[in-house]
Amino acid sequence: MESGMLLSGRQRALIRESWQRVSGSPVQHGLVLFTRLFDLDPDLLPLFQYNCKQFASPQECLSAPEFLDHIRKVMLVIDAAVSHLDNLSCLEEYLCNLGKKHQAVGVKVESFSTVGESLLYMLEKCLGAAFNPDMREAWSKLYGAVVKAMQRGWETLPEGD
């Protein structure tokens, strides 16, 4: 993961500025992200189980305290990426391990494109007209770098696991 991963100074500034507006209400904005995710791909719902409990609906999942904790964690990962825009390589090992954890619970690499769409949707809904094409491109690049690092977690698992 290259430092700054080809994000220009302007793109890093756009990401920081937009995240500052969103990060004050992580659960509220995370709910927008995951509501959109389940709208786009309802088949992801069974991946979220706590104490062997399967959720009957996205609404039930989105209101579960355990899932709200998951939302907080997701938003913290985004926050870490934004905080380390100038040196994302320091998150490489963490993101690789996060990828392994996601694979272990049955997440498919392909699902991350839907998560990316949901992230951009959340930013657009929360920022309104301020979420312009330049900001979208900057966030897409950042998200792409995070996913690439997480995918390395899939690649490092031995065959048969």
From TrEMBL:
It catalyses: Fe(III)-heme b-[protein] + nitric oxide + H2O = Fe(II)-heme b-[protein] + nitrite + 2 H(+). One of its GO terms (cellular component) is cytosol. Belongs to the globin family. This is Neuroglobin. Residues 6-155 form the Globin domain. InterPro entries: Globin, Globin-like_OT, Globin-like_sf, Globin/Proto. Keywords: Cytoplasm, Heme, Iron, Metal-binding, Mitochondrion, Oxidoreductase, Oxygen transport, Transport. One of its GO terms (molecular function) is metal ion binding. Monomeric globin with a bis-histidyl six-coordinate heme-iron atom through which it can bind dioxygen, carbon monoxide and nitric oxide. Could help transport oxygen and increase its availability to the metabolically active neuronal tissues, though its low quantity in tissues as well as its high affinity for dioxygen, which may limit its oxygen-releasing ability, argue against it. The ferrous/deoxygenated form exhibits a nitrite reductase activity and it could produce nitric oxide which in turn inhibits cellular respiration in response to hypoxia. Involved in oxygen transport from the lung to the various peripheral tissues. PANTHER family: BLR2807 PROTEIN, NEUROGLOBIN. The lineage of its organism: Eukaryota, Metazoa, Chordata, Craniata, Vertebrata.
